[in-house]
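for the writeup, i need someone to sanity check this before i put it in the appendix. the sequnce is what the collaborator sent (i think, or maybe the updated version? ugh). structure was predicted straight from it, no edits. if anything looks off just tell me and ill rerun, i have time this weekend
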Amino acid sequence: MTVSVIMYKRMEISNTDIALFTSWLYLPWVIKPIWSPIVDIIKTKRFWIISMQLLIGLALIGIALTTHLPIFFMVTLFFFWIVAFASATHDIAADGFYMLGLDQHDQAWFVGVRSTFYRIAMITGSGLLVSVAGYMETFTNSVSLAWSIYFLLAAGILISFSLYHKLILPFPDSDEGRLIQNASDIYKEFVKLIKDFFKKDKIVLSVTFLLFYRFGEAQLVKLVSPFLLDSREAGGMFLSTSDVGFIYGTVGLILLSAGGILGGFLTAKNGLKFWLFPMAIAMNLPNAVYVYLSYFQPEPFWIVISCVGIEQFGYGFGFTAYMLFMIMISEGKHKTAHFAITTGFMALGMMLPGMFSGWLQEQIGYQYFFIWVLLATIPGFILLPFLPIDKNFGKKK
């Protein structure tokens, strides 16, 4: 979803089509609770982690081999769908693996590190390797060939990780599949898991928060890269592909990591309830840097890097609260499947706003669009005081 936006922009797909079709790639995360019981019941989390990494690597090879086709948009989207479904399945297993191996305090302590490495993986794909793609665009004088090379590199990384994790991942005692006799048993288990989830305290309010906490960011994330790449006449910053990769792979990565680790440390010390409001401010207020960039379009590269760095630090710090909140409402007997449900609502909160964000930006321009993004953060703030959060959740005992 992140890289496809940059690639399709460089291959001259419109912002409207980019935002609409790449937002549909969130759908596997939205509906993954439907098959999360299968991951929870059949085989082990370790098995699903390893096999899905391998499948993602193979799908990335498919993208690499089809970027030059006249119908590349349709074909590459098909392979992106395979990546999306495999990645959503991987999320179910990896989240469960994380929670099975750590107690509540350790989950809070390591959530900053976990979030940081999740973002490092994204920065590697949308930062470091994008810089390579930008260099190859210049070197080969072919956008499609440059991105083929990108996806071959990405495929090599995923396949290597699959082999590495097969050798290195531990075997938690609680990570085991259960014998299910038939499809009816799976269905009954699924229905029971859903019912148990919606019996939780103030669950409707919690789900509403999951949908709206990132309402502004869901729209912002689809248009940041097109904004940085677009010409100044179109309201953008007219950076190169390598420039965008460099920004997210250097200062952006460092500050994002610092924000995530700091968030994990502070919540482990004072608890989630204490830091929830400051983290919500940190996640949303820095989006104002794009209002500044769109209005003044400063030419010094260091200003652009600084603005993105501020936004990335705030994101890393603020996202910690979101992750911990999902872990909190997932606690219980079926926490792996329930966490999958929460991430499904998270994905829905990213998918629906993202779908219309490209069209909206093309109607009102980048300047007004980024102002709208700031206004879109208000619903999430309104819900904060009403959330059912134990004041000791996440705090070191």
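The radius of gyration is 21 Å. Residues 335-375 form the longest helix (41 residues).
thx in advance!!
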